[in-house]
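Exam revision sheet. Question 4 asks you to relate a sequence to its structure. Input first:
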Amino acid sequence: MLTAIAIFALTQNSNKQTEVRQQQQARQELWATTAISPQELALTDVSLTKDEFQSWQLKGTVTNNSKITLGSISFLVTIKDCPRTDDCKIIGQENTSTMSEDFGRKPLVPAGQVRLFRTYGMKFANMPPAGNPRWEYEVIRIRAAE
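Answer key, structure tokens:
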């Protein structure tokens, strides 16, 4: 009986530690994804290019006007065919994020600084040819470095 009580107590303690750790991780994730507002970043000279491996990359310059180091930016990239200016159809759409040197161990842009950025490659699978292609991007997540 004493063994059962000891096992129960250990299990309860382990469950409590797991719950505390999960709460800490949730607080850290919330901070990382809300610490830098979109207004604190300036993206300039953004281009969408296709490389020799038929992979697309978003490239440009990012200025971090916040007081917090920027870890990464996630984007939604959309390619449209616009035969007429009032008649555009989406022909490709993918999510991507900025590439980080050193496998994510190095932040993208320290606070108050400017850096070049590029994203992971996108394939835009099954995208039909476009007569008048146009593209756009949207920042969908900003993550502070931890």
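Marking note for examiners. The chain has one helix and six strands.
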